[in-house]
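Antirepressor protein C-terminal domain-containing protein
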Amino acid sequence: MKSKQTTMTTAAEEKGFSPWCASCALKQEDRVLGGFESLSDIDQCIELFFIEKQMEALQQDYREKMGYMKSQMSESKPADSREQDPACSVQELALKMQASGIDIGRNQLYFWLRHHGYAHYQSERTLQHLPTEESLAQNYMIAEKVPRRDKRIGKHSYNTRLLVTGRGQDFFIKALRAERGSAAKAVGV
């Protein structure tokens, strides 16, 4: 006599699934019922973990390199603090000189700069001061283009403005102090 099998069938057997999935080594019934994550989800978690580790290593490397660069830049800074001053106009330089005891105005300073070969006119017609090649090479001055608009015609053009760098400020103050000091001594004798 034949007896019927009395074991219960699982949900996977009822649906006709094979008991194992070759691609992920998990029971298909567990995949269908949501008992386990699929291999692709596990792979993504592992991949994200390694990406996070790589990002941490890159950030650490970046911090080390930036620290090294900052230390190199601080070592290469000039000892003179005047070189760190921003560029200023000749009028501002004349005011600084007056504050430090040198009696000179803006026009006199322009004349002194032209006379000693640090500035020149762009052309006699426009009377725009420009730095000479020597003052540019020694980083005493720079020329800045300032946009302007002619109100009568509506035409846009540029004016050049002479700016004195921090190094130039220090140099010109020392030069004028030495020149005016020696001239005062010659007059007083």
